[in-house]
Amino acid sequence: MSRPIVAVVGRPNVGKSTLFNRLAGERISIVQDTPGVTRDRIYADVEWLDRKFTLIDTGGMEIGSEEVIQKQIVQQAQIAIETADVILFVTDVKTGVTEDDVKVANLLRRTKKPVVLAVNKVDSVKRDTLAIYEFYELGIGDPLPVSAGQALGLGDMLDQIIANFPEKDIYEEEDDAIKVAIIGKPNVGKSSLINKILGEDRLIVSNIAGTTRDAVDTPIEIDGQKYIFIDTAGMRRKSKIKEEIERFSIIRAVAAVERCDVAILLIDANEGVTDQDTKIAGIAHERGKAAIIAVNKWDSVEKDEKTMNKYLKDISMELKYMEYAPKVFISAMTGQRINRMLELIQTVYQNHALRISTGVLNEVLIEATAMQQPPADKGRQLRLYYMTQVSVKPPTFVIFVNERGLFHFSYRRYIENQLREAFGFVGTPIHFIVREKG
Ligand code: GDP
Ligand code: GDP
């Protein structure tokens, strides 16, 4: 089941970032091996009462004239409406209700999405209830007093947030369809690719009606395989500010990846792998999704027999942590290798859900440790006793060892590679849980 998405909105200086950091806590940099992703983070995992969700901070820019800021606030609210399951609207008790608050409220009132209204900076225990009442005038329900700075009232607010989560995955009955997110920076060719796939004489099943999301997903059946392409239509926000465009494309990617089985990362062949590509790729990686790297606009590159290899090398360098993702060189314009890409989607999808029996797994483990001795440290040698697969999507293995500290990254990687050699697992990350056994 995909995790619900909670988007934080509100005008500048009400304390959105403070609140975001407070809720995200230490979890904010969980995955250290995803370079470029942990910087300027705008999304984080939060867990409250056994419910996990993804928190997105839509704010961030908020510079310029009052007019520019107002535009930004509106865009941020709109992107939250498009992508979130629950919207957390933050206001400030010290300033009271402002004109900009009213603007945001007017937008939020028009959506069907649940909105939780937090009044921040209520720092003292004897809370000024009168000041809180003023926020009823925004017309979006009960204002909740919180203090991001003092960590007050956050539990009640989180209770409210999770009480508003959708009951179940909207696609639960559509289990035979592969959910695909095409992600990538603006202008890389995402819409063109979808249009190309749809344009080819293919059967569009139906539109999914009655979902709580405002976004449009495209179900389609190709050669007997059902797919759902996520968030493909009407998702273009015009903005002149580069940072803002980037931020929105990341928010959009987070929302799409959250709900997908397979993420296709589009790279522009004319630009190679950019910083933003790295960030977007990291989203799929961190979420443990099946992934394909598609180099688009291949038609527009001048090439000789070495060109493809050069690209492959560059991608491996820049996206080291995604070595498992197969690469394909496509053109959304001419349709080159789009069939190949569709085949890859099926392959990586199957690998993502692959289950290996414990017996076979341990045969591989025994062979691997015989071929290359586990490392020793200060006279203590690592011993790998046993391993078993505990879940899929992505394949996750519990491995029992004598001492966790001895199981260094390089040997872990060796074991991972042995598993990949034995079972394939193309296109899916593999997760390990290391347990000590006396
Ligand atoms: P953003 O622009 O909405 O992201 O706001 P920030 O998180 O950057 O906070 C703006 C200012 O409000 C900073 O100076 C914060 O230290 C302050 N602030 C944030 N939360 C609280 C709070 O709960 N109480 C008080 N007194 N100040 C806060
Ligand atoms: P999006 O912002 O990622 O959805 O990108 P678009 O699909 O709107 O494409 C951006 C631009 O790239 C458009 O001008 C497309 O015509 C162009 N484009 C997309 N795919 C290809 C391709 O495979 N080859 C070439 N030459 N141009 C492409």
TrEMBL record:
GTP 2 binds at residues 184-191, 231-235, 296-299. InterPro entries: AAA+_ATPase, G_ENGA, GTP-bd, GTPase_Der, KH_dom-like, KH_dom-like_a/b, P-loop_NTPase, Small_GTP-bd. GTP 1 binds at residues 10-17, 57-61, 120-123. GO terms for biological process: ribosome biogenesis. SMART domains: AAA. Residues 4-169, 178-353 form the EngA-type G domain. The keyword Transferase does not apply. SUPFAM superfamilies: P-loop containing nucleoside triphosphate hydrolases. Keywords: GTP-binding, Nucleotide-binding, Repeat, Ribosome biogenesis. GO terms for molecular function: GTP binding; ribosome binding. GTPase that plays an essential role in the late steps of ribosome biogenesis. PANTHER family: GTPASE DER. Belongs to the TRAFAC class TrmE-Era-EngA-EngB-Septin-like GTPase superfamily. EngA (Der) GTPase family. NCBIfam families: GTPase_EngA, small_GTP. Associates with the 50S ribosomal subunit. This is GTPase Der. It comes from Anaerotignum faecicola. The lineage of its organism: Bacteria, Bacillati, Bacillota, Clostridia, Lachnospirales. The gene is der.
